[in-house]
Specification:
single chain, mainly alpha, Helicase, Ruva Protein, domain 3, 2 domains, about 60% helix
């Protein structure tokens, strides 16, 4: 029992040591302003591997490479828009989280509204068809049978 307790204590100490050893990664750019610009630019760009994560947050190797490329472009004196244009030229509008409204992306921007309109149209047609459907009254035999069933269950007074 003592041995098990010592092994658990040792494992716990090792895990705490790993937390102490880990720390914040130093910025890769020598200039803090360039690093902040890189983060600001890459927050609005999509990781091409993760697809629902920004380049700034992604840990994929391609995202790291793209962040390094953005740093290089910033060090070369590119403006933020030139960096984004460079990546869009290379990877297409898919790299942006908010692509522009142009003929290439009309389906992306208008598609949800078209589907919503189609859904409301189908709902309206369904409701209209149900309202038009005439309710046929019961004939005498069906009415007598319904009353007998209700009387048997004690629901008819």
């Amino acid at each position: 029992m003592k041995r098990l307790f010592l092994m658990l204590l040792l494992a716990l100490a090792a895990s705490f040591a790993s937390f102490a050893w880990a720390g914040w990664a130093p910025p890769l750019a020598h200039d803090e302003a360039a690093e902040q610009r890189m983060l600001a630019i890459t927050r609005n760009l999509r990781c091409l591997v993760c697809q629902d994560e920004s380049l700034a947050a992604s840990q994929a190797s391609l995202a790291r490479d793209l962040r390094a490329e953005v740093r290089t472009l910033i060090e070369r004196g590119y403006t933020d828009q030139q960096v984004v244009d460079y990546l869009v030229a290379r990877y297409g509008n898919y790299v942006r989280f908010r692509p522009p409204f142009d003929p290439e992306t009309w389906a992306l921007w208008l598609g949800p509204y078209v589907l919503l309109a189609l859904g409301f149209g189908a709902l309206g047609l369904t409701i209209r068809a149900r309202l038009r459907r005439s309710e046929t009254p019961l004939d005498a035999a069906e009415f007598a049978r319904a009353q007998a069933l209700l009387a048997r269950n004690g629901e008819l007074e």
